[in-house]
Amino acid sequence: MSLWKKFLANVELRRIVVLLSIIAVLFLAKKMMSIILLTFIFTFLVLQLVKFVRRWIKIPAPLIVIIVYALTIFLLYSAVTKYLPVIAEQTMKMIDSVYKFYQNPDYNTNQVFKWLNSYIKTSDLMHQFKGGISVAFGYLTSIGTMGVTFFLSLILSFFFTVESQRMFKFSRLFLTSDYAWFFQDIYFFAQKFVNTFGVVIEAQVFIAMVNTVITTIFLSIMKMPQLPSLAIMIFLLSMIPVAGVIISCVPLALIGYSVGGIQYVAYILILIVVIHALEAYVLNPQFMSSRTKLPIFYTFVVLLVGERMFGTWGLIVGIPIFTFFLDILGVKSISSEKEKLKSAKN
């Protein structure tokens, strides 16, 4: 038997080589990682939604996909046209309020403000201002880049899901090709990762729902306007672990300023801090632990390490990757819903 045939016959060694090859390709494509992950997340969520709808209503899957993406685009359009003008207006009002306060004739009677004024005059304010402008420009550029990434991922996931049956049929051809062993091993790893990712997404949906309910209740007590729209925005942002709560702070604070002034801004900041602590230290470990059947200590450590190593994406994919390797190493397997049903019948 030749060395090549021995390698193909050794399934464990072969799969290790394939897994290392996948990791190497992903590392080389790290600049496209946001597009890859967002496309995967959008595709997974839409396919799961299609399966759920078709359990109750037997309508064509492409029609469900078109309705979902049309509704998504409508909500995004409404958010941009409705909230961006409000945010811009409230930002200008805040700047105008600060300017008027500074120009107040009674301003110089306060010794503290006199000291601040002298400090501003003697400090290198222009250099700091230029640095602040460059930082702000960097943030705007990153927001624009993320917008393009989001749009491309949405388009790619749409084309995949609207032709999902054709995609699956075509992709199965690789499993019977001349190098079928290679694609069969890729399919093996992909199936396990999808199973673990599905469990984590389910947990994140629960976390987003809890965040949305708590925040919406407090916003209703504060008599904030347009609560349904704000609730949708909070839910969508809460799908981003930890960071989503912080991102939602900006529009909520600006809208709160228009309703109750600085006092409402302080209330919202306190609320965001409490929700952030609740999500980071209670909801994430508890829900992730209950869904993945991992000890809370392991779940919390993985979230901390994932955030340190990969930022926000580490919070999203850290648990799936950890449970994926546990499954691969034979430490603990996470079965899919189909496998659970089969075992229950047996």
From TrEMBL:
Name the lineage.
Answer: Bacteria, Bacillati, Bacillota, Bacilli, Lactobacillales
InterPro entries hit by this protein: AI-2E-like
Residues crossing the lipid bilayer are: 12-29, 35-53, 60-80, 136-161, 196-219, 231-255, 261-282, 316-335
- CC per GO annotation: membrane
Instruction: Say yes or no: keyword Transmembrane present.
Output: yes
| Membrane topology reported for the UniProt record | Multi-pass membrane protein
Q: What is this protein called in UniProt?
A: AI-2E family transporter
Origin: domain of life: Bacteria
Q: Which organism is it from?
A: Loigolactobacillus coryniformis subsp. coryniformis CECT 5711
